[in-house]
Specification:
The longest helix has 29 residues, at 152-180. The protein has a seven-stranded mixed sheet with strand order 20-17-16-13-12-11-22, with helices on both faces. The chain is an alpha+beta fold. The protein is 40% helix and 17% strand. The chain is built from 21 helices and 22 strands.
Length: 702
């Protein structure tokens, strides 16, 4: 299926604040709140986007197709009759947008509601009687490139095929579980398993449809607005006020509240997890699986009944300022109902932060520092907030004090983050100098520099990346590569996101109209960044100095697979040099690594596994006979069995915490358990093993 919309892991680069002094307000467009939102959003895109586009029939046609694919990409709800009803709008979306009209959106929502009623009746009828497990034939799973069902009869037939495949898959899984269950002395028959699976599937589908029906109109309208923004580039998007608040929390890694993640469960809200060290965890009264029935604020007598309320609304009552108290009426799994109080506090989500270990190196007596950085986080709203650059500096200094012989910085799966932090971080490894070039609309260029001549780490450095290392990760890897300061190691290429986004608060772009505010926020691409050698990471990403096999290397991933990505371009190089540590033996390092990889059984199996993963991803057709499905499943599992132990062996036996870190880790069992898992993962990571080998080669070749 084609990728659509802004990536969940796409980075926000925030370089400057107070952009254009309240954005030079324009007259407020006419109309109600929703009309003002769409017109104001489009005005800001026209004024500030890096590559503004004409809002014409071509734009309209692309947005029309994108939105319908986003609403029904699996082709489970609409028929060609619906598409025919939508068709007159295909080249009218641009005109509707300019006048603040949601005519196309409203029509889609109307027919979407009808489609839900119709298809709900389908699955309830299909699942009301035994599924023919040997009906035969096959299903070709539909996606964006598929047409819509010709009519209701064809759509219902597809639902039968879709549900049959679902049931077949679950029966196979359930029968395998039953075979392994030693307490089951009498194994259920296939007929009994089918009945059990069918009942659970009905409950699952009912929950799915209930969630779709309960989705707020504002959420569905936001989906439409983002179909429009996606025409500009994959990382430009509209945020409702609640969505922006959630983004800020993810970006900063902290919030003020009770420290619990929640989810809808039947008519109430269930506690999914507790943040270790958070207020709820400390109070010891709220537990996972508890149901929250009502919420009362400090100083108020009446509690708010949250029955049938969506989680995003519930959290608005539970979150609050540090030091305030919230009262929760909860129902325990055993049926006990009680009211508890929790004093809100700052909750820090520590799994998102940098952490380090010491690993025995490949050379005799070598100690290597390993740093894992999940994202380039930054808490701009709080003076005492966590910033990735500050945290990396602390980790480097701790490792330096332990006199490590090299550093491995792991940026795999790091989707990026703060531009300011990546500039500061690069400076820890080089003396002052340019880090990245940023070019805005019209070619206006700025060079962002590290201005601190000091260097924290001047020894061997390896940076691990993969195809999901994006944005800020690519800036850091590219800068260190251009300076010839580090060896970049990993997948064929990084993600390829070379654009800079900033948030614009729509409220600040129009005067007055407090009656309709807040309007939300638009995150838009305003600049592209370039390497100091003049090339862009856009689309092409960063090609590692040493490429290692990867199980997902044959899959189509990255920026080029997104909707409407900006093109690769090049500008003049900056003047740059460094004399801290020069790698004058890169080709020798590559040859040595290639020799090791060629003789490493694990890496060879990873390369073979990439072909299997590609075949499975490309498969769209499945049998609708239990016998044939079982045969296919057995073949897949037999093949997968060959690769299941890829990361079972300990390849890095000497993995240790720094002593000063243990003081905090050992304060509770949960942190200790997470730390044990972290160390275990490092000990079995063949990519880290090769990074250690490269560090040893660097020391030898110096």
């Amino acid at each position: 299926m084609k990728s659509r919309g802004t990536l969940l892991f796409s980075a926000l680069f925030m370089a400057l604040f107070g952009f254009l002094a309240a954005y030079l307000p324009e007259p407020t467009p006419p109309g109600d709140k929703q009309s003002v939102i769409i017109q104001t959003m489009m005005q800001n895109l026209a004024r500030f986007h890096y590559q503004p586009m004409k809002i014409d029939d071509e734009f309209s046609g692309r947005a029309y197709d994108y939105y319908l694919n986003d609403v029904d990409g699996a082709r489970l709800f609409f028929t060609q009759d619906d598409i025919a009803a939508f068709a007159p709008n295909k080249f009218m979306v641009d005109d509707q947008v300019k006048t603040g009209s949601y005519e196309f959106f409203d029509l889609v929502q109307e027919r979407w509601g009808n489609a839900l009623d119709k298809t709900e009746a389908y699955f309830k009828d299909i699942l009301s009687k035994p599924i023919d497990l040997e009906r035969g034939g096959e299903i070709t799973v539909r996606d964006d490139d598929s047409g819509w069902a010709a009519n209701d009869k064809a759509l219902r037939n597809y639902w039968e095929e879709y549900i049959t495949r679902d049931i077949l898959n679950q029966i196979i899984q359930k029968e395998e579980e039953n075979q392994k269950d030693e307490e089951l002395t009498v194994k259920p028959s296939t007929k009994e398993v089918e009945e059990q699976v069918r009942k659970k599937t009905l409950e699952r589908y009912e929950g799915w449809f209930e969630r779709m029906r309960e989705a707020k109109l504002s959420m569905r309208r936001s989906q439409y607005l983002n179909a429009l923004t996606s025409m500009f580039d994959p990382h430009t998007s509209y945020y409702r006020p609640k969505d922006k608040e959630s983004f800020d929390i993810r970006f900063s890694g902290r919030l003020e509240g009770i420290g619990a993640t929640l989810q809808n469960h039947d008519t109430y809200t269930k506690v999914a997890t507790l943040v270790v060290g958070g207020p709820a965890w400390k109070a010891k009264e709220l537990e996972e699986e508890d149901l929250i029935m009502a919420v009362r604020q400090e100083g108020e007598e009446e509690a708010v009944d949250i029955k049938d309320m969506l989680v995003e609304d519930v959290v608005q009552y539970i979150r609050g300022k540090k030091g305030t108290t919230v009262f929760l009426k909860i129902k325990k799994p055993d049926g006990t109902i009680k009211e508890i109080s929790i004093v809100r506090d700052v909750v820090v989500i520590d799994d998102r932060f940098a952490k380090s270990l010491i690993v025995d190196g490949a050379g005799e007596g070598e100690k290597v520092g390993y740093i894992n950085l999940p994202s380039f986080y930054a808490d701009f709203q709080n003076e005492d907030g966590r910033f990735s650059a500050k945290d990396i500096k602390i980790e480097l200094e701790k490792l330096k004090d332990r006199e490590v012989d090299g550093i491995v910085l792991d940026l795999r799966n790091n989707g990026g983050g703060s531009l300011r932090d990546v500039v500061d971080m690069t400076g820890f490894f080089i003396p002052e100098g340019p880090v990245v070039q940023v070019a805005g609309r019209g070619g206006r260029k700025e060079i962002l520099r590290d201005k601190d001549p000091s260097v924290i780490w001047d020894g061997p450095l390896v940076v691990l990346v993969n195809q999901y290392s994006a944005s800020a990760s690519e800036i850091l890897a590219a800068a260190l590569q251009d300076y010839n300061r580090a060896v970049i190691v990993g997948s064929t290429s990084t993600f390829g996101k070379g654009t800079v986004q900033r948030f614009i608060d729509l409220d600040r772009t129009i005067p007055g109209r407090t009656d309709i505010k807040p309007l939300g926020t638009v995150k838009l691409t305003m600049q592209k960044f370039y390497r100091i050698n003049g090339g862009s990471t856009q689309l092409r990403g960063v090609e590692p100095d040493i490429v290692l096999p990867d199980s997902r290397s044959l899959l189509e991933t990255g920026e080029r697979q997104q909707t409407a990505p900006l093109k690769w371009t090049k500008i003049d190089a900056a003047d740059y040099s460094q004399n801290v540590y020069q790698i004058d033996f890169m080709e020798t390092l590559r040859e040595k690594s290639n020799e090791r990889v060629a003789s490493n059984a694990t890496f060879q199996k990873i390369a073979e596994n990439a072909k299997r993963v590609k075949r499975q991803r490309d498969r769209k057709t499945y049998p609708l006979s239990l016998t044939e499905y079982q045969a296919m499943d057995r073949a897949n599992k037999t093949e997968a069995e060959m690769y299941k132990d890829l990361f079972d062996d300990v390849v890095n036996p000497g993995v240790f915490n720094i002593e000063v870190d243990l003081e905090e880790i050992m304060v509770d069992e949960s942190k200790e358990a997470r730390n044990d898992e972290f160390k275990k993962g490092v000990s079995k990571d063949v990519y880290i093993q090769e990074a250690l080998n490269i560090i040893a080669d660097m020391r030898e070749l110096e």
